[in-house]
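FIELD: query
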Amino acid sequence: MHKYLPGSALLALAVVASPVLARAPSVTANEAATARHYASLIEGSTPRLSELTMFFTQMPKGGDLHHHYSGAIYAETYVDFVDKQGFCIDKTTYRIETDKATIAAQRAKPAAQRTCLSGAEVNADENTWRELVKRWSNKDFSNHVAIQPAPDRLFFGTFGYFGPVANDNLREGLQEIKARAIAENVGYIETMFLLSPFVANPAFDTSTRASVNDDAALGAQLRAELAALDANAAYNTSIDTFVAQINAASEGIDDERFTMRYQNYTLRLLAPSQVFSAMVSSFKAAAKGGRIVGVNIVGQESLHVSMRDYLLHMKMFRFLKTVYPDVKVAMHAGELALGEVPPEGLKFHIDSALGIAGADRIGHGLDLAHEANAPAIIKTMREKDIPVEINLTSNAFISGVAGADHPIHLYRKYGVPYVISTDDAGVTRHTLSHEYVQFASQFKPAYAEIKKASYNSIRYAFLPVAEKQRLKKQLDGRYVRFEAQVAAMATQTARAK
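FIELD: result
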């Protein structure tokens, strides 16, 4: 655990984080012209959003490091997957029906009497389609006129609707994500792809929860469970099958324009034995190398089980980092806002992810200002070069944290590295370009900072050095072309006046 710094330490942090006098890299004429053009778009109290959108759609954005595969695909695609698999959609619940007998009985009825519709039938009925998309994404949330769930419940609830088809069409889903990324000049995505294999052990569930504050006893239990998992032939076969599934789905994704890599994850809402065994399979799969480059933990952080078992999960990560020290860990940590949990629940999540679990990147990091060790967290992330993954759209929708309330102010002020990411662009129905528009219009960073954020998404990717160098060189070329285009447009505009 980090030693708490007194409030006065914030002043010291500000001094340390101030710009260091050093020779700046040379700026080309086109880069300077691009910076001037961008500055004109954000000046004043009303940034020019349409022009910013065009600017960022064209701008190379490096990569997207906080990206959930299933949440990135739009509802429209999932409806198409329903027909591909021969399922139907209950028009009263908008759930996907997968039972073959029920589907057959529905199809035997006249069309007017069916309560379970094909994807094509849903698409043909505007009202039904609109109601479906309202449940499978946040579309029209602000326009709802009836009683509706809270934003966080709607967001996390969407996965239960399209879940039955999400993991059975992996190749098609990845191709859609790739095409959309290329269209908006994104060269790399590191996606949280699939839940790793897990098994249940009720005795382990009870014993580990009882020992969470006894590191010696807990360590012995984790070592024993790992040994049992290592000896479980069926479990280890499932890991091999899992890795083969990812490799098969990702064939043909990488090319000269685009690269994708994959994180496996565990789900913090499961029982401890299931969480731990999914962690183990995630680490084992990542340790094999190849396209799997890291591990993560997902699931709504404010729920009872997530809060109760948070420290236990961090200690599980700590243990497995000693077994697999070379495996990279990205951690959803501190995705909490005041009021979502009692105040004491906001005091330690980022700190524990860093100091106990050894996270290499922090996802969201929303509760920074409330953390008891906030100054030490800032110092650690800056000095150890640990970035935070910023997801403005989902933070605003799920937790209501936006604008002046967003901790990106603190991360930027005190020199913590950051990347701009999408989170679940299919659910929140936006793009990485839109995230940059939000960042630029709300916080008005200079073009140099925008460009650095784009390069950071390659710098902090869980990739070998050679791969990062390749992607950086690729990004260099894209910026040369982009800045030349912006400079030419600026010249044309000036001549037309």
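FIELD: remark
Residues 266 and 496 are 57 Å apart (CA to CA).
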